[in-house]
Amino acid sequence: MKKFLLLLVMISSIQMLYAQSNPPKREMRGVWVASLGIDWPSSVGTSLSTIQAQKQSISDLFENHKKLNMNAIFFHIRPHCDAVYKSSIEPWSQYLTGTQGVAPVDPDYDPLTVAIEEAHKRGMELHAWLNPYRALLSSGNISSVSAQHVIKKHPEWIIKCSGSEYRFLDPGNPRVRDYLITVIMDIVRRYDLDGIHFDDYFYPYSDYGTFNDDASYSKYKYGFTSKTSWRKNNVNLLLKMINDSIKAVKPYLKFGISPSGNPSVNTGIYCDPSAWLKGTYTDTLGVAHTDGPYIDYILPQLYWVRYNNQLPNWSTTSFLNNRHLYIGHAAYRYSESSFPKDELTWEINKNRSTATINGSVYYNSSSVIGNNAGCADTLRNNFYRFPALIPTMNWKDTLPPNQPRNIRFGRLPGTGVDALQWDSPYQANDGDSAFQFIIYRINSSAIYPEDINKAGNIVYMTDSKNYIPIISDAGNYYFVTATDRNWNEGSPTIAIEIQQPNSPLLKFPQNKENNQRDTVILKWDYSPFSGSYQLQVSTDSLFSTFLVNKSGIKDTFYVVTSLSGQQKYFWKVKSINAVGTSEYSSTFNFITGFPTIPFQQSPSKSSLNININPTFIWNKEYFAQNYGFQLATAITITPQSLVVDTMGVIDTTISIKNLTLNKNYFWRIKAANQFGISAWSPIWGFKTQSTVGVVEENGLPKEFKLMQNYPNPFNPITIINYHTSAVSKVTLKIFDILGNELGTLVNEEKPAGYYSYQFSATNLQLSSGVYFYTLKAGDFVQTRKMVVLK
């Protein structure tokens, strides 16, 4: 017995290794992207900024799935009779705009169009995922429903569950079927979709409450004597009508459903997958039919450990009737304690060893991208290391497109790099044209059948007619095939060899150029065979640190900002493609001509008790022609917080009057000349004095006072403030530490008021040391100490 168990373990291990090292070339690898704030969108609203964020999040989301070699997106567009797309039939969804029925401000914005374009350019299918009957969630609020919603427009079509707010369209009402066909076919006709997809929300689950559809049963019985059978047929009849309508307009479009993986659960919501796959239904005249399957795939949600032994219910050939079986995986549950760590590995190995299973779809996007329980790592590193084509549905069109024409490798228009390029094939005999292009990489110019059949040779899939190869350990030869909407693959082009690129030649600025502006456009010559460029910019010739170290540049220029004034920079570029990397170019250098950042002097950083009529002082920058100055009431300087914002100050001082008492202010400066503008200096803050001595009613000082100079110590300029409470003969003098008078700063009669004097140690040729300044006004005398520090 032990030997037998050991043998089973060895066989299982061998199967797992084989599945990982020999992945199938064709396999459904899908992911559900749920709205309702679950996966997308992360930002809700109607503004242009929100729209841009939603578009970008679709692109980022799909790119992350592309990196996992997923090939299909099941995109949630109709949560409960509302639209995450532009519809004239149903209202905009609150999960997109925040309020049901309120449209985005951009009338051209359509998330479904964006999603389709983003999926197709990555070689992925886009299936529109809809909930057919659900109209309001059990926790919903009827008052929030839009006037354009079917609940308000056709309340006679709605059934409410007792004990909850859950409402759904009555499946037994033929007007409901007509309405749903109208909604779905509007989507089918207007969008370049690959599929229409339903999940498991048909009749309500029992926990939503009981419902009463006696009126519909009595009126539209169609000969049924069992309400259970009648309810199942209501669903079957809808699906049959949808299938026939889709196939009449777009035969290639796929139609599938993901019911619960537990048949007993499906019975409770009146789902009959066996009927869908056999094609049985009863028409409105009471005539029974078996016309063949009216869905293209079944996708049971096997959301339990080891599928809870439910897989045999779905995987028999007789049950499937030549339709595809995809397995729904519970990526969101893999971190639960009941799930073994190897659950995903077991599931994919089980799928690949079961002949009737055509692939997998994962719920949900956030769980996969978030790498729940390491699921993304398992897929990326073990099972989905290479791209895969979606399995062909042989009951649809089987004629492949012709091979792409005029394959070549050369400079891609509008860029500075080379790309593999080709033209669309001539249309096949049935008029079918190419939908996706498959790029292969091999070791020689000769193409053999095994080269096309090996999944590891596929490097990319796209609807574009160009591809920039990336670095890989595979060969240097590329060829391309075309597929149609049913993923029938045509014959290959010839194989094109890619050679290692040469080093670029630097072009501008010329080496050792001076007086470069604050924004520099670095340019180099196009280098044949380049797939991208890497640029390095540094302040030292050894490139020990970088201002710029940018790879993946697709053109022959790069705009460099955040440069410092009067600084020498060194730069070099190398070429990169899928084969290898060139040597770096020769190193050029240039010197910027704009000024350095000025150094502030006063008011000093974090200083207190500053006069409300201050003079701002900074060092002179040798190359500056003028200065910019900003004063604000917040440390984050914004247009709303600015008190003063001026450019073109010629001097190195500026005086501001009548600031508010006991208030924080913040200031900064920058220097400019004909070559550009320096960065802003650091933001320095200060606080004005809380009172001006004792203040009379007319706002004048009631006492004489000499303030401490600021900054202190200083070099060479400082500010001395003083107050006079009456008309007086005022003198302000400077003394050395021995009491010798060195100079008179003020000697005149002054009215009552607040005064400020800007003193420069340079004027009196003061060296570093301690000095005193004395104010005399009438009988008032006060002396303070100042320090010159050079």
Task: For the structure shown, list the relevant keywords.
790 residues; alpha+beta; six-stranded mixed sheet; 15 helices
Description:
With 790 residues, the chain is of the alpha+beta class. It has 15 helices and 44 strands.
The fraction of residues assigned to DSSP E strands is 25-35%
Radius of gyration: 38 Å
Number of helices: 15
Helix content: 10-25%
Outline of the structure:
This protein is α+β, with helices and mostly antiparallel strands and 790 residues long.
SSE diagram, text form:
Layout: H1 2-21, E1 28-33, H2 48-67, E2 72-78, H3 94-97, H4 111-120, E3 125-130, E4 134-136, H5 150-153, E5 158-160, E6 167-169, H6 174-190, E7 195-198, H7 214-219, H8 227-249, E8 254-257, H9 263-268, H10 273-278, E9 280-282, E10 288-290, E11 297-298, H11 317-320, E12 324-330, H12 343-352, E13 357-363, H13 365-369, H14 375-383, E14 405-411, E15 418-423, E16 436-442, H15 449-453, E17 458-462, E18 466-467, E19 477-483, E20 496-497, E21 506-508, E22 513-516, E23 520-524, E24 532-538, E25 548-553, E26 557-560, E27 568-576, E28 588-592, E29 600-602, E30 607-610, E31 615-618, E32 626-632, E33 642-649, E34 653-655, E35 664-673, E36 676-677, E37 684-688, E38 705-706, E39 717-724, E40 728-735, E41 741-750, E42 753-760, E43 769-777, E44 780-788
Parallel strand pairs: 1-2, 1-13, 2-3, 3-7, 7-8, 8-11, 11-12, 12-13, 22-28, 30-37
Antiparallel strand pairs: 4-6, 5-6, 9-10, 14-15, 15-18, 16-17, 16-19, 19-20, 21-23, 23-26, 24-25, 24-27, 27-28, 29-31, 31-34, 32-33, 32-35, 35-36, 35-37, 38-39, 39-42, 40-41, 40-43, 43-44
Helix pairs in contact: 2-4, 6-8
